[in-house]
Structures are given as C-alpha cells and as structure tokens.
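Now for a sample.
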Amino acid sequence: MAEFLPPPECPVFEPSWEEFADPFAFIHKIRPIAEQTGICKVRPPPDWQPPFACDVDKLHFTPRIQRLNELEAQTRVKLNFLDQIAKFWELQGCTLKIPHVERKILDLFQLNRLVAEEGGFDLVCKERKWTKIAIRMGFAPGKAVGSHIRAHYERILYPYNLFQSGASLLATNIKMESDETPEAKTHNLRRRMGCTPANEKEMPGTVKREPAEKREQRDSEREKSKGRSKKSTNAVDLYVCLLCGSGNDEDRLLLCDGCDDSYHTFCLIPPLHDVPKGDWRCPQCLAQECNKPQEAFGFEQAARDYTLRTFGEMADAFKSDYFNMPVHMVPTELVEKEFWRLVSTIEEDVTVEYGADIASKEFGSGFPVRDRKIKLRPEEEEYLDSGWNLNNMPVMEQSVLAHITADICGMKLPWLYVGMCFSSFCWHIEDHWSYSINYLHWGEPKTWYGAPGYAAEQLEDVMKKLAPELFVSQPDLLHQLVTIMNPNTLMAHGVPVYRTNQCAGEFVITFPRAYHSGFNQGFNFAEAVNFCTVDWLPLGRQCVEHYRLLNRYCVFSHDEMICKMASKADVLDVVVASTVQKDMAIMIEDEKALRETVLKLGVTDSERMAFEMLPDDERQCIKCKTTCFMSAVYCSCKPGLLVCLYHVEDLCSCPTFKYTLGYRYKLDDLYPMMNALKLRAESYNEWASKVNEALEAKINNKRSLINFKALIEESEMRKFPDNDLLRHLRLVTQDADKCASVAQQLLNGKRQTRYRSGGGKSPNQLTVNELRLFVRQLYALPCVLSQTPLLKDLLNRVEAFQQHSQKLLSEEMPSAAELQELLNVSFEFDVDLPQLAELRIRLEQARWLEDVQQACLDQSALTLDDMRRLIDSGVGLTPHSAVEKAMAKLQELLTVSEHWDDKARNLIKARPRQSVSSLAAAVKEIEEIPAYLPNGIALKDAVQKAKDWLQEVEALQAGGRVPVLDTLVELVARGHSIPVHLDYLPRLESLVADVQAWKECAANTFLTENSPYSLLEVLSPRCDIGTLGLKRKQKKLKEPVPNGKKRGTRLESLCDLERALCESKETASAMAALGEARLKEMEALRSLRAANEGKVLSNEDDAEMKVCLCQKEPAAPLIQCELCRAVFHTSCVSVPSIFQGPYVWLCPHCHRSEKPPLEKILPLLASLQRIRVRLPEGDALRYMIERTVNWQHRAQQMLYSGNLKLIQDKIGSGLLYNRWQATAYQLPETNKVSQTIDAMSFSLPHDWDNRTMYLHSPFSSGQNCIPFHAISAELDELLMEAHLLQVSLPEIQELYQILFTKHSPVLQTEQRSAIGPTSEKNECCRGKRDGVGSVERKLKRRFEREGFCGEKRARVKKLRTPKKKKLKLNPSKDLSNSKLERERERLFEVQRSSESHLLPLDMSFSEQEDSEDEDAICPAVNCLQPEGDEVDWVQCDGSCNQWFHQVCVGISPEMAEKEDYICISCTGKDSQY
C-alpha cells in the first residue's frame, strides 16, 4: 500500500478580541472562505482560557469498541467477502485457509474481482490471461505465478462463484488435512460486531492482534470430524440420491446435516473425491444459509465502565506500548500514517475504544454554566455568558435553534468526547446539515479531515462506487457514522479534502453539509454542539427534502420551527423575520399545492390537529419517516399511523374517501402570520432589497461607493439590527473603501525612494499579478469606483513596461541609458515589478561595460588601479557572457600590465643599470600595451632622457668649443638621475672630479688659512676696491636676471664678473671681461691710493681723522699699506716684531692670498689644460698668468732701462714725511684691537739697513712706503699692479732692491740671472738663458714636434712613465728666467691650441694619460726631444715634481729606479737657503 500523503491544511483564523466578541458575526465573516474547505480552525485570543467545569469524579462512561480495519469501507468490503467465502466452505465441512503466493497472502477479493472483470474463469483460462492478472495484482512477471493463482482460484473461488451463479452443486477439491502446508494461514474472518463468541472477547484497551498460529489452533479445535460412517446394509434402501434416485454406492452417499437428504459424491457438480470431515450441507441448505440478510454494521459497547482517570491510564498505556516511547514524544505525522495503514490492512487487528456522544446534560459540560455547584473565580465568570461557550451558542438570538423548545442532545445540548490514540469519528455530515463547533478542552491533538458542502454528493458517489456492497444492505450508511475512507482515495477521485490538527484550546467549525471525519492522537477531552444561523434556513428545508428521499428520520420538524418563529414575529430580529418570511412563503406555497393534490385524490374529511403535542415517533410518516407538523393523512383502519401528504397512496388499501386530513393551521391562518413577518421586515425588506439590488447589480447598473455608504447610514438612522446583510454591506463597503484608498495610493504614490535602488519589495507593494487581480477585484466590486479606469490604465502601462523590459532584457547587452530610462519609468509605479531586479543587474552590467569601454578608449588614463577597481566591481556583478568576456580581457590586460610595470620597475632599479638599447626594446613592448603604466612611463621617460643626454654629450663632443664646468656638472647630475647605463657618465664624472680636485688644489695653493675670499675672488681682478669697510659684503653667486631685462655688461661686483665668465662661450670673451675688470680695478685702486695718501699728507685735525680697521684717530706706532696706502695701528694688525731690513707691508684688504710663485701656478694651468674643461676660476687663472707675464715683460723693460737710477737718487734725497714728527712720541699709544688681521710682507736686501732716515717717523721702524712724487706714474702703476698680482715674482724684489740700493741695475740683473751648479750626477751646465729668442726657438721646436703627434702615437707604444709620485704644487724658492720664459710660452701655446681642439670624450683614460705623456714637455733647458718606440722619463724628487727625459738630464733607467733625482732648479733653490 502507498504511503499516506496528508491533504492540504484548512484555513486557520486568529480573531482579535473585537472580532471574537460576536461569534456569529465572526463566523459570518469567515464563511466565504471557510465553506470552501468545509472545515476551519479558530484560535481564540491567547488570554481566552475558560476553566474546565466538568465534574471529573462523577463523570463515567462506557466507550465504543472500534476495530480499525473494519472502519474503512474498502477494507470492510474485503472482510465481508472473505466472511462469505469462509461461511461457504464452513457449510461445506471445510475450513478456509488463505494461501500464500510469493511470500504474500493472496488477496482473494482482488483476484475474484479481476477474474470477473476479464470475463470469468472459463474465458480467462481460454485466453490464458492468468499471467496478466498476476501482473495486475502486483506480482513480478516470469515466475509462473499465473499457474499458482489459477490453481488457488479454481480450488477456492470457482466453486463459490458457481454457487453464486445459481447452479445446484457442491464442489470441492481442497485437501482437508489438518496438516496444511505451512504457508497457509487461517484468517479469523468471523469477528464481526454482534457475531463474536463470548469467549473471544478481550479486555478493552489492548491491541487486538491475533497471531495466525493461535487463530489456526482455535479454528482447528472447532472443526469436528463430520465424516459419516457408511450406512448399515439393512438401511440401504432408506437412503437414495436425490439427484440420480439410486441407492447404490452407499459408501459414496452423503447425508446432509441440515435436511438429512442424501447425495452421491460423484453426482455433485463438481464431484467430491473425499467425504468431508465436518458438517456438510446440501445445495438447498447452503443456499438458505448464504442468502440470509446480513446484519447492519455498527459499534458495540465495551463491557467496562470508565472514569476519566481510568480511561486516561488505559489510553496512555496503549499509545506508549504501541509506539514504544512516551506519549508526548510521538510525532503527529507518525500517528497519522500509522492510523491509515492500520485501517487499510486485513492482516492486523487493532481495537481501540472511544468515549463518544456522552451527554453533557447528565455529567456536566466542560464549560461553566449557571446553576452548577462548581465555584468560579471572579475572573472566570465572564465565560458563563460567552458566546463561544458551547452551552450558549445554540440558543443565542442569532441561532434559529433557539426557537426549538425541545432539548436535542448533540444539537442544542453539547456532547462530550473522550478519545484515545486511533479512536476515530467516521465520515458524516451534521443532522439537518447544520453547523457544528468542536472545542478541545485538553489533551493530545485531534486530527480532522473535511470536504466542502458542494462536494458532499461527489463524496457519496465515490464511496458508493468504491464500496457498493456496503450500500446495498445499508443505503443510509453514511448517516450511521461507522464508515471511513482514506482521504487519498477520495482525492484521487476528485473529491477536495482538507485537514487540520486541533490542539487544546482551539475550535473547529464545520459548515452545512460538509462531510468530516478524523481520529484522536491520544487521550483528550472535547465538546461539540450544533448551531444554525439565519443563512442556514434554506439549506434546512433542502435537507428535509433530502431526508424524505432517503426515508431518514428528522431530528426536529423544520415547519414547526418556522411557525413558532412566525408566531413571535413582533420580537424577531428583522433579518430573521425577513428570512423566515421568505421560507414561510415557500412552505405555504408547497402546503397549498399538496392539499389541493390530496383533495383531488378524494380526501375530503379534515380536522385541526395539534401535532406538536404528539411525540416525534408518533407523528412520523410511515413511508419517509418525516416528522409531520403542517398536515398529515391517516385512516381509521390503522390507528396511530399516518403519512405525509407526499405519500398518501402508501397509507393503506382503504379508499381515499375514508382518509382524514389532519392540519395544524388553515391556509387562511398562515397568511396573517406571514404578513406579520412581512410587516416586521417590511422596512427592512425595502432597505434589504435596495442593498441586494446594489450588491447584485450588473456592471452597467452598479452604484457608486457613496450610495453604499448612504445605505449604511440609512440602516443606522432607522436602527436596523446588526444582521448579516448589514454586516455584509459594511464589509463590502469597507473593502470598496480600502480598494479605493489602495487604488488612489497606487495612482498618486510613486515608488518610495528607499526601494528605488533595489532594496527589495516594499511591504505594501503589489505584484503585477496582484495588481491585475486587484483591477479585476475593482471591476467585481458591487459598487463603482472612480479610480477603477485610472487603475486599469496604470495596469496597461505596467504591462507595457513589462513588455518593453522583456524586449530589452532579451538583447545581448542593452545600453545603460535605455535601462536607466526604463528604470526611471518604473519609479512611477508603486508596484512590485519582477523585472526590476534583473533590470538593475543588467544596468550594473551595462554601466560596468561602458566604464570598461570608456576606460579603454583613453589608454593613457587607464591605470592599474583603474583596472583593479573595474575588476573588483565586476566580480560582484551577476554572471553574463559580455561581462565575463570583458572581465577576461581586462584581467588579461591587468596581468600583462602588472607584469610589464613590475618589469619596468625592476629595469629602473636594476643594478647594474641596463643599457639604452635594452630599455628601448622594453619601452617598445610597453608602448604596445593599451594602459597607463607609471613605471613604464618612467622607463620611457628615462630612456628619452638618456637619449637626450647622450645627444647632448655627443653634440658637446662634436662641437668645437671646450666644455664649461657648469654644463658638465649639470650633465653629470642629470646622468645620475637617469636610471640608465650611460657609457659617457663615468668619464664625465671623472672629468668633473678632476676639475673639483683641481679647484681644491688651486684653493690650497692660493688661499690662506680661514681666508674670507673665494678662489675666484683671489684669481680675478678686485671688484670691491673702495667699498671695503669693517664688514665685507656677502658674495652673491649667479644672481638671476630680472624678468624682461637684458643682462648688463657692467662688472660692478664679483657676481657680475662671475656671471659674465659663466655666460662667455669662448675664452676670448672671458679674457675681455677680465680685462675690463682689470681696468676698473686699476682705476679704482688709483683713486683709493690717492685718497689714502692725501689723508696722510693732509692738515686735517687728528681727532677728525679715522684710520685703521678700528676707524679711530691715528696713534703711533702706525704702519702703512704699500698698495692701498691706508694707515693702520700696529696693534690692530699683525706686523713682524723684528724687522730684518726694509719691509714692504700689505694690509689685510690687500693681502688676499698666499701669492705662490709662478712655477707653482704654471703646473696648475697645465693640468687644467690637460683636463680641457672651462671654468671661471680657470679663465681667471689664465688671465692672471697672462697679466703676470705681461707685467714681467714690462718689469724687465723697466729693469733694463736707465730710468730706475734717477728714481733711486730722487728717493734718497727727498723728504718722506713731515707730519707727526714733533709729536711723534707724544701721541698716545693706540690700544691693541682684540683681533689682529694678517698682513703680507717681505724683506728687502740688507742695504736698506744702511739707509739713514732724515727725520724720526711715527711709522714702525724699518717700514716706509715709496712716495708718489718720488717715482714716475709708469713705475707707480707697475708697482701697484705687482701687488695686485696674486703671484710671487722675483722681479718685484728686484724692483724694490733697485729702488733702495746703490748697486746698478745691470749688476742686479746679472745677479738675478745667475744660475748655480746643478745635479751632482752630471757636471755639465744647462747654459745661460738666451733671452726671448731662445725661448721662441724652443717653442717652435715644440710646435714642430706636435705636428707629428698623430704619426708618433701610431708608432710609439705606451710610455713607460713611472707613476710613483703625484703632482706636488708646493712653492719653489726660485726658477731661472730661461725656464720661466719657456714654461710661460709653452702654456700660452697650449692655451691657444686648446681653443681649437677638444679632448675626445670617448677616449679611454689610459689613452688620455698616454696622450698627456706624449704631449708632455720636458722642462730641461736643452731638451733633446728624443723619439722612438719607448721614451724613458724620470720625475724630480725635489720640490717641483716635474718629469724629464732621462737622456736629457744624463741619467740611465737603472739610476732613475734606484736613486733620487733632483733637477737643476730645485738644486739652485736649495743652495739659496
């Protein structure tokens, strides 16, 4: 059997306290819904908990016994059939044992039915359909089951069917041995209500399961050997076979145990092979026994009386034992499935007991009632008058049963029900098709099944179709409450069935003519009663007509109830009066017609008769059992019997004129009663007719909502009772009003903002289908709403939106604008549109795709973060093919971009740096990626910068000018910042480093310790003459040019001079700028000298004169600067404490450097020329050397001229000073300045000491300045420029020696040009200086040698010049004139050649050094200019560190390696000290 499937649940209502206050109003409200399912469940408010008022100690009852498998209709048919088969074989002297096939009990009922459907035994055998039948019975094909089934049919069923067909025969070929095959099991088929032997009764409450072995043993004990012994020989003639009339074969002659007739075993059809062991009946006796009418099925009462406590103990023990678990833990679903399994099986016998239909009048209701001894708490007294108290509901004013005087148990008085597990109530409808209400006071749930009233006849037809045998003997079977049928079976045949589980404290209401059944889940206590509302009256009359057709007794007279209500018309509710008036009109019309018919039949006698005074059983129609009230016909021949007017002909055989018509009212009496009802309901009827007309109006005649409200106002004004019609009108009006409000909201209100963004459905939003149904509801309303056409238009627009949405969503990827426009349209609808979610999804997808497309259009702006952001936002999108494609492309692009961006970053940060070519190839790859890669852009920029840098370097190399230092520094700085390997960068760095090293060396050479001057200030002409005070102006280097102004050429400061030098593109322009600065320097110095000298010689008051650094009045001792002629206190400046002869002193402003000798400066210029880089300091040095050389030429001319003798005499004979002589030693001594400033001085020859002073001077002893008037302007300018030169020159000393000595200049010249002995290793002298001609000749040879430079480099190997010593720029003591001239000319020549030839930047450093070695000039006086593959050099270990050809100085390589070599110049210098 298939597993039970629970039917759908019935409606469950949970009324509010307001709704719960009036039960009939609430039931009327839910009736349209609940009557569609037949039953419904009502949960009272949680606080509604009536007390249990039943007297538990006094309550006792005798339950009914229910055998579960006898309740179900189809199962009972099977059992009845098996009973017939068993009885048939029992009368044949045999015991029926049901065989097993394939380990299953053979279903004889199904087998018999299938063979009958196939045409009978003979036809099935003929057409060989046994296999087909076996398959239909559920057996697997191919196992020869058909032959087994045929054999069983032929042995058991075929004889029975032959008997049923009317053949007078007995046939059996079943073996009757007691040792039947083990699989055969005897079934106890005679356990029927009223038929069970006394010894078989069992204690109630136990599971009635009887093992097959016990039943077989018990049945075998019953069997008695009925085999007859053979007749004695002398009595043979007394017995003859009734079939053949012969008395032969006495041993085969059977004697009937019923009638004692004799039959041959072989005369029977089919013949018997053996003599039966039990009692045997002949065919005639068998027919008589089997044709006896079957007893009506019903429940028998249990033998034991129970109280609630004892019944509960039995019920809980039964359920706990059956399910083997505590009762409260058994699931309701399990109990339900087990119940339907048990009622559908014939193998298991389970018996339960049910305390049903216990009269509450006798034992008390579960609800509290008045006049009862039970005491109630004050808060419980409200339940006494509650409408939901089942004692009150049937007799309330709204219930028509209140007009029935008799107390009808079950209808007007509640019945009590005490249930246990599996105890059931079968399919039935309530008496007179009334309502019923059931309340479960406490206990386990009660499971209900119900079918709606409109399906009642359908349910009856299905049960009659499936179990027709039951209705043959019991036509009113369904009214007996003894038959149940599986809901699944009913539902399979189209009957709508609903279920519910009624828990404690819940009501279940059944509606008119609604079939219902169910069972109890366990021990519980329920109470039920019937009630009838006004709307039931038509159904009640219809039910009486139905009962008449079924010949069923009525519980009460419907006509009597109507007449009683009519007699109280003046106190009836107007609704009840109106309804009763209508029903009474039908009753009068029917009664009038019936009386006319009876009169036509010949019944002329009549009399008034008070039928209500007779008991109901004495005024029932003997034909249809209807309770008569309006009229009846009776005859004197049968006193006490009567018939209704429908069955006059069934009364008796007497002629109709002997019949008498008894009536309760004349027709003339009935009309006034009806008119009284009419008058009572007239005002109401008029109003009700208008209401009904309004409610039932067609579409074109519908009234407005205002009219409906006017009808309600009229009812209130005229004080119509709150009846069903008014409530219905109010309900319809409220619904219409709500619909109008909702419709207006839908028309006016747009979608709320919080739901626009896709936040979900608004709690009050309608779906499109709901809107469509709502529009239909508006059109279905009894009234017309002005919003209906507008809402219809809204629905049309919504449907158009849906169509447009569907079309747009069917596209592969619609545009975001279209989707957004469509969504904007949706905002006008306050409707739940299912497309919105997908539209929003597609909009997000479309926007994302457009973002991707837009981002990809501008490749320069598509960054990695943009791609990651797009991918992150795309991951959250709903999958779509277009999105996935775009996502894949974007992911691929991101992967490639990240790879190349990382690669570009790694290339930028690579150490060592990558070459330009490799990076350019990477840039070319990166440029093909359609995305913005910051590192790629940086790499591209680096490559471009590298190319530009290389281009600038190559342009600088290809140009004809010497590179400027600032340009090289800027190139090196830029080269450092470019993350690319630049081949030229190390060389430029080395070049700049050489320049910086040169500047440092030059600074060490010229600058004094803690000098306030820069190297450029020292090397350049002075620009600060006349502007010097106690505080020096701060230097400003490279001042920016004002916007819009051209840089001026005036060199007013050092910054201007430096700017001019930096901006000069050629050496010539730099020299010109320096020359202009020199002129300004000389002019400014002349003015300053004249001013200072005039200040000394003036007659100005000493107190007003300010001198020295301290700017105070002069005070001895004083000292005067030889250059600027300013006067200083000896205490404020640094002066030698001991003078060794005459002393030339320079002030701190004029003493600007160490004034190194020229031989120390010339290597600086030579090394700078080898570096071949222009810088301001280099130009200044070059100009200073030119200026120095120029000064030397002028000084030499002055020395060799005869003008110095005259000047010498003039100086010796003139007065030097005439001021401060009288008070020389009277002047206060000036306080020493706390900080002295260094000054420069040098000693003159010792002849100055023999010089006699004409007057005592206020100046320091041994120091005097040459007065301006004593020398010529030319000599004065020569001496002034000599001090401006930052070089120590021997000519300066010679000039001063000549000016202050008596020796002739020629001797001084010879002494100055004398050259001492040279090296101790060779004795030869290098000769005298040949003058300028000798120098020029040597320079000429130098130029000729340089002409062969290229050819010489090709054939000379790398010079083996030892690098054991660095260049030392220490000042030397002296240098011969010839050497100075040669060095000076060489430097000038190198300077001139540097302007036209640049050093190749791509030359290796080794080659550069080699070229420097090759171009190096041997400083030997008579250089031999050796040539060859190898030229050996030696470096002086003296103070000059110069390199000489070994062959020119007369030493061998071995001597150069082992011994120190000191050149002639260094040897001469050492000899002077």
In short: The chain has a mean pLDDT of 74. DSSP finds 48 helices and 32 strands in the chain. The longest strand covers residues 351-359.
